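Human: Can I borrow your eye for a moment on a structure tokenisation matter? Separate attempts, laid side by side, tell us more than any discussion would. Could you pick a protein and write out its sequence and tokenised fold? No explanation is needed for now; the record alone will do.

Assistant:
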Amino acid sequence: MAVPASIVPFVIIFVTTNVTPQDIFAVGLFPFMAAAFAAVTRIMLQAYRFKYFIRKFIGQDISSTGRTMAARLAGEFVTYTTPSYVGGEFVRIAWMSKQGVPPGKAAWVATMEIIADVFAVTILGFIAGALAIMKGGTTIGITVILLALPTFLFWFIVIVYSAKRNMQVPMFIVRIVERFAQKKAEQYIGQVNKALGDLCTMSRENFASSRVIRPFVVGLAITFASYVAYGVSFLVLAETIGSGIGLFDSLMAVAASNVVGNIPITIGGSGLTELGIWAYVSNLSTIPNFEEIAQDSKLNVIIAWRIASYHVPLVIMWIAIMKLAIGKKPAEAAPS
């Protein structure tokens, strides 16, 4: 479902503009492969951060490095195939719980990953937005800042609130669950509230201790490194048309596109991500018309980048989630 949905914007571009599949392939095989490699490096760094957080916050490895990173990639498949890049944390929590990790601790690891991602992308988004405004790109600059601000504030409030008192499932959600799952509603809500309570307990214990600072800073550094790799994925393709865009500008462009792609409208930010990066590299100062977008020579590079940075990693994530879903076949019983 995600792949066909993500291809729709490309089809629209091919039909309504002068861009053709041949233009996309014109970027060259080596630059495309280099961009794809950089994009895969990004998700591998995120997978390693997951393993690092498990070791630091749980106190030990719960599986081999390969299996742990594969579980992170499997969760990322869900993240990449839902609006607003959400859902992967539930896969990771379920996997950790299956390995014997208490739900509260599993939720804590997932939450720290989310916070690291949110802090990295919003901080980069604020910088990108401010720089765009300074360069005259008021429309894209203000848009990026306004989109990044609510996400940053929400998670900041969650951190502060959870460190002071326990969170519980809101009553309006309880009523919805009771309406659709009358018999098991109490059991489900109880399990979720217990996990939230354990999470808040972990939050109070960790935020009151200096032990959490170093692991989180290291995790945040890994997250920023993953975004540098993301920036490289666009840089190598932008160089094929002599755009003159440097690494820092590429990093700012992909950060802005990520913020715009987080709007929960399309699967995996399809269409929005491309629009966001086009608007940023074009230093957009007004509301663009369709003809202006359609005639831009950067479209072929942007589409090639999207394929390299989204569809190629998606294949790797799909393999990971299939392995996680199928698992090892049980050994056949020895003949008597």
Q: What stands out?
A: The CA atoms of residues 9 and 271 lie 5 Å apart.
